[in-house]
Amino acid sequence: MTYEKHEQPQGLNDGQAGAGHEPQMQQPPESPIRQMHEPSMQQPSEPREQAQPQAPEERKDGSMSIIAHLEELRKRLIYSIAAVAVGSGVAYFYIDEIMRYLTAPAGKLYYMQPAEAFFTYLKIAVFGGFLLALPVIFYEIWRFILPALTVRERKALLLIVPLSVVLFVVGIAFSFTLVLPAAIRFFIGFGTDNLEPLFSLGKYLDFVLAFILPFGCIFELPLIIVVLAKLGFVGSAFLWKQQRIVVFLSFVIGAVISPTPDVFSQTMIAVPMILLYEISYVIVRFVLRK
Fold first, then answer.
1. CB atoms within 10 A of CB 243
2. Cα–Cα distance for residue pair 242/246, rounded to 1 Å
3. Fewer C-beta within 10 Å: the chain N or C terminus?
4. pLDDT band, very low/low/confident/very high, at 125 (cuts 50, 70, 90)
5. Max mean pLDDT range (59-68, 157-166, 174-183)
């Protein structure tokens, strides 16, 4: 290995700097071996402590990733289905009492196929299990949307969740005790001495379920309107202007969700909807003062 000889710059005598000049020392070139073994200064240094990603449920802002949302939805669906399964088992245990209560408005029924009674019993048991599991289902729905709500909205859920369950059950009870018997008497009234009504078990219970279930959803209307008014989306003036449209839409919805295409069933669904809308208007104007 050879070293080159470097000459001293002019103006330096015997290692001493000239007037007004400082000595300039030139570094010898680094050895190639030393350059190979020294780490490169251009490589980014690793951080001392790597920040651990925080779990979606532990984030302070309540945000969650898409995967976390899907996992949460899957968990809520499993809990809801399990609640319906348990409720269906309980309802099937008391299926005789339930069937006796459901078939009371029509009297004696018949089944036309060998398996019709069995599958009808299963259908009624599942529907009964759904009603029994309704508090759990509503809780799981609100629990799923809970991370997107503020603290004030979460406190409001303590009133909204049980009230929504109560209104749904009240709607079904109102339909079964008042509206359904009137509808059955209306249709039986077409019978004569030569035309005797014979109701099939499966067809009759399909009619009952299709007739009373929409009332559970209709009775949620006051709660929905009050919540929208509380959030500032609607007011009493807006509700007053939309009354004619609501009357028209009530009969349209009644015609769509009615199990039969007759005017009687359509009216029996539309009239309670209009009355509930008027009750909502009174609550928004005189209670909330919106």
1. 13
2. 6
3. N
4. very high
5. 174-183
Q: Sorting pLDDT into bands at 50, 70 and 90, what band is 29?
A: low
Under 8 Å between Cβ of 257 and 211: no
CB atoms within 10 A of CB 234: 20
Judge contact between 211 and 266, C-beta under 8 A.
no
SS3 110: strand
> Tokens 């979460």 map to which residue?
154
Kindly report the number of other CB atoms within 10 A of residue 146's CB atom: 13
The tokens describing 190, both together, are 């077409």
CB 239 within 8 A of CB 172: no
pLDDT tens sequence across 186-196: 888 887 777 87
CA distance 123 to 118: 9
Maximum CA extent, the chain: 142
Alpha-helix runs per DSSP H in the chain: 32-37, 66-93, 95-102, 116-132, 134-145, 151-174, 180-188, 201-218, 221-231, 236-241, 243-257, 263-282
Q: What percent of the chain has pLDDT over 70?
A: 78
Tell me if 102 sits within 8 A of 205, measured CB to CB. yes
Describe the crossing of helices 221-231 and 151-174 by its angle, rounded to 10 degrees: 160
What whole-number distance in Å separates Cα of residue 36 and Cα of residue 126? 76
Q: How far is CA 15 from CA 9, 10, 38, 69, in A?
A: 10, 11, 33, 77
Q: What is the mean pLDDT of residues 90-112?
A: 87
